[in-house]
């Protein structure tokens, strides 16, 4: 059984929902099992509760060292000024020991994202995230155009060749659309199939 970690941070629940869809895609592949975890919050509890953040997320927190235990890892983050969220950065900055041991070399990795606006940094957030994954020697996987929803023109939608994405809206009221969730499932399935081949 190949075990794939879906590791995310989500302030308001959009990335959390996308993580669930990615997990569904992984679990749809026979021989693959998704484990969904999140990185620890850095915002104080009272600030999070007072600013409408989604504090009741079911996924347990991951520890940096456990990344080595998985056959592949799919990361999810909201954008912060076109880059990954500080919570995810902080977590990854604790993986120096894994890097020193080369513990993630050769493992497949992929990234999905949430932004408030259509052009608010979906692609830069994913591709700048890839830099860290490449320093770890991971094999970067995107969301290929065989996912037809990447070229949808009939509605506003996330979906990039670099990874699945959703648009939350300026006030966070827009939830992931069917097309965006389909992209997330496709990405999960795609990574799972490649992971199976690499672990065979
Ligand atoms: C400090 C900060 C910076 C942000 N920067 C951007 C940005 O550059 N572009 C954008 O579209 N959204 C930006 N956002 C909005 C978040 O990306 C949005 O709240 C998030 O995608 C929602 O996903 P979540 O519910 O998983 O947290 C920013 C939010 C915060 C708090």
UniProtKB/TrEMBL annotation:
Binds 1 FMN per monomer. InterPro entries: Flavodoxin/NO_synth (IPR008254), Flavodoxin_CS (IPR001226), Flavoprotein-like_sf (IPR029039), Flavoprotein_WrbA-like (IPR010089), FMN_Rdtase-like_dom (IPR005025), NQO (IPR037513). It comes from the Bacteria. Its cofactor is FMN. It catalyses: a quinone + NADH + H(+) = a quinol + NAD(+); a quinone + NADPH + H(+) = a quinol + NADP(+). One of its GO terms (cellular component) is membrane. It is an enzyme of class 1 (oxidoreductase). Pfam families: FMN_red. FMN binds at residues 10-15, 79-81, 135. PROSITE patterns: FLAVODOXIN, FLAVODOXIN_LIKE. Substrate binds at residue 99. Its EC number is 1.6.5.2. Residues 4-191 form the Flavodoxin-like domain. Keywords: Flavoprotein, FMN, NAD, NADP, Nucleotide-binding, Oxidoreductase. One of its GO terms (molecular function) is electron transfer activity. NAD(+) binds at residue 12. Belongs to the WrbA family. HAMAP family: NQOR. This is NAD(P)H dehydrogenase (quinone). It comes from Blastomonas natatoria.
């Amino acid at each position: 059984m190949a075990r794939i970690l879906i590791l995310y941070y989500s302030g308001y629940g959009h990335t959390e929902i996308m993580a669930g869809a990615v997990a569904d895609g992984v679990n749809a592949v026979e021989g693959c099992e998704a484990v969904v975890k999140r990185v620890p919050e850095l915002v104080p509890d009272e600030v999070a509760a007072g600013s409408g953040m989604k504090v009741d997320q079911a996924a347990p927190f991951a520890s940096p060292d456990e990344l080595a235990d998985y056959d592949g890892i799919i990361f999810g983050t909201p954008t912060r000024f076109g880059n990954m969220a500080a919570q995810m950065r902080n977590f990854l900055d604790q993986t120096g020991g894994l890097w020193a041991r080369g513990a993630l070399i050769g493992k497949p990795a992929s990234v999905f994202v949430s932004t408030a606006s259509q052009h608010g940094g979906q692609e830069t957030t994913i591709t700048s995230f890839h830099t860290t994954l490449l320093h770890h020697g991971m094999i970067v996987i995107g969301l290929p155009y065989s996912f037809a929803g990447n070229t949808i023109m009939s509605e506003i939608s996330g979906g990039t060749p670099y990874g699945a994405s959703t648009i939350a809206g300026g006030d966070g009221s827009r939830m992931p659309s069917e097309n965006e969730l389909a992209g997330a499932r496709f990405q999960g399935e795609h990574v799972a199939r490649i992971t199976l081949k690499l672990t065979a």
